[in-house]
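ASSEMBLY PREDICTION REQUEST
Request ID: AP-0331
Submitted by: J.K., bench scientist
Number of chains: two
Total residues: 514
Priority: normal
Notes: Please return the full assembly, not individual chains.
Input sequences:
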Amino acid sequence: MLAAEDASLGAKPEAMGQMAPKEPNYTYIARTVRQWILHGEYSAGDKLPSEEAMCKEFAVSRMTVRQALAELVNAGLIYRVKGIGAFVSTGQLERDLNSITGFHEEFQNLGLNPESRVLVSERRLPTRYEQLRLGLTKYQLVRFVRRIRYLTDVPMGVQSLTVPIHVVPSIENIDLETTSFYRHLRDVGVPLERADQNISAVVDAEVAALIDIPTDIPYLRVERTSFVRGNLAAELLVSSFRADKYSYHVSLTGEDR
Amino acid sequence: MLAAEDASLGAKPEAMGQMAPKEPNYTYIARTVRQWILHGEYSAGDKLPSEEAMCKEFAVSRMTVRQALAELVNAGLIYRVKGIGAFVSTGQLERDLNSITGFHEEFQNLGLNPESRVLVSERRLPTRYEQLRLGLTKYQLVRFVRRIRYLTDVPMGVQSLTVPIHVVPSIENIDLETTSFYRHLRDVGVPLERADQNISAVVDAEVAALIDIPTDIPYLRVERTSFVRGNLAAELLVSSFRADKYSYHVSLTGEDR
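STATUS: Completed
Returned structure:
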């Protein structure tokens, strides 16, 4: 732990200079702590370096460190114990299920460098299940894209996307290794308006093998069907994300809506 | 499969007479199919009996059977393939995470006979984690109740409930084996107004041992903190439900809230 801590604390200021010269110091610190947790340098229950140590290593004021820690407390990543210090909560990044955002957009906003590797990209006839979920006849072609998703080089899981080509014809012209599908939908004027999501948990040896992690780690499996104007299904997205690094957040108001 | 099918189809009409004389036939049929799936008599991918067979066995019209099947399709439990029949989707009951309902209320509405067994019920000081989540000082007493939850005698999981006694003093007088906590809150005039939920997946040998199922089945773990008027935390509820029988549903409208 100490060696990792020293290395990280020591290495980051230069990286900051290279990558994001105008980023505020506190978001840079928050992002660095997220990366420590993501890479397992700090795990659930571990105590973070003291405020003093962080001030010194990042060469910032106490107020800046506190601002960064407050952001991480709000995100549920850490908690503070008065007079003792800050601790890692669960070691999981929390993804917001209340808004229809994509993996890329959500984690880019957090500075976690989301990346994708396309395993499969094919134009084909829909499976029976895809027909049912997307309301397709068996001859309506779909584009199917399977991607591994990474955050700062850590493989987080696998997503399988099925898009009816007649609903989003431009899907055939974009590279989903570098382009956000949801941003693309907004760019072409067909933003998502509604989504249904089913959340389950699985142990999936196939996914584990794809991203090279132990097979006994469970996955959160989210199946999302999203609709554009006119109640037309534009995607079936099946996400399997490793539950040791990932969790979901849903907030609600009002009882018995 | 056939033996179980015969037994269920044969046995139910009498049970219907005993239990719910005024229940419409189609909800009775839907409930019976839910029980088949819950008890594993029909698993993911299995074909249900034909409409003809169900008409005959339940002694109802084709329209009534179709109404029951439509309800199950809407709940995501089954899907129909034209000209072939109805199939079990995932074998999981889907719980709605969009409303702050309790286990008891939600499944009672579906006629699945929710029951509880209290494992622990104690008045004690809050743990450090409970203090953080519920905004308590270390001397504010809580009631802690741990329950196994059943549906039609099938153990579904374990729930641990922590309630600050000064927020809901009447928690000391109710029996959570027979009373719904959420209904009680409404009865005493402090309904829940807001909840934050974190959803993760775990493999939990302790829970598996408690409800006596294989240790390699993952659990959906939902941690819910609920608030009453004045932003006062009234409960910390940690639910661990077996993912082979259980999933969650979240629907959304509008992108980028």
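REVIEWER COMMENTS: DSSP finds eight helices and ten strands in chain A.
SIGN-OFF: pending second reviewer
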